[in-house]
Write a structure and sequence with these properties.
The chain has one helix at residues 2-55; strands spanning 57-60, 77-81, 87-93, 96-101, 107-108, 114-124, 135-145, 151-161. With 167 residues, it is α+β, with helices and mostly antiparallel strands.
Length: 167
């Protein structure tokens, strides 16, 4: 009888340890899936911005056309005309990237799971006859994740050159 009690106790301890390990693995998988979803959303937002910039023209760092901000700290706002000849604005607002097309309301490009800490646009080559193809350098840093324990910090950088030939 004592042997059966000892064996049941050992079996119970082993099962509790195994269950704890299984729950820990499930929690880590849930965190990894949440981070993957947030990073995929960030990649989609960055690709959407670069596609619009690449096919657009009349880049500017403020509402005045042909305003460069190639040096210094850049700008958190970017103005351009898209391929449909509509004005587009990208900006950082409340730790989210937003886009406005043709004066409509600003629409967030990033999900609430992503916090953008810094977004900078460096516009270069938009001045007439400067012999530089218009281009935009985008730098951003932020965190992705649903909670402090399931988040990661990221930095992204891309250089976008205007598709239209600068004459």
């Amino acid at each position: 009888m004592v042997e059966i009690l000892v064996s049941v106790a050992i079996f119970t301890v082993v099962m509790l340890v195994a269950l704890g390990a299984l729950l820990s693995i499930l929690g880590a998988n849930k965190k990894a899936q949440a981070l993957k979803t947030a990073i995929n959303n960030m990649n989609f937002a960055m690709e959407s911005m670069t596609r619009t910039i690449r096919t657009g023209f009349d880049y500017s760092c403020d509402a005045a056309p042909e305003t460069e901000c190639a040096g210094g700290s850049g700008s958190t706002d970017m103005y351009l005309t898209n391929s449909d000849n509509l004005p587009v604005v990208f900006r950082l607002n409340n730790n989210r990237i937003e886009r406005q097309v043709n004066g409509a309301a600003f629409v967030p490009l990033t999900s609430p799971d992503i916090t953008i800490g810094n977004l900078q646009f460096f516009v270069d080559g938009v001045v007439e006859d400067d012999e530089i193809q218009p281009r935009v350098l985008i730098l951003l840093t932020g965190t992705a994740g649903v909670s402090a324990t399931a988040s990661t910090t990221f930095t992204m950088q891309t250089l976008v050159t205007q598709r239209l030939i600068d004459r």
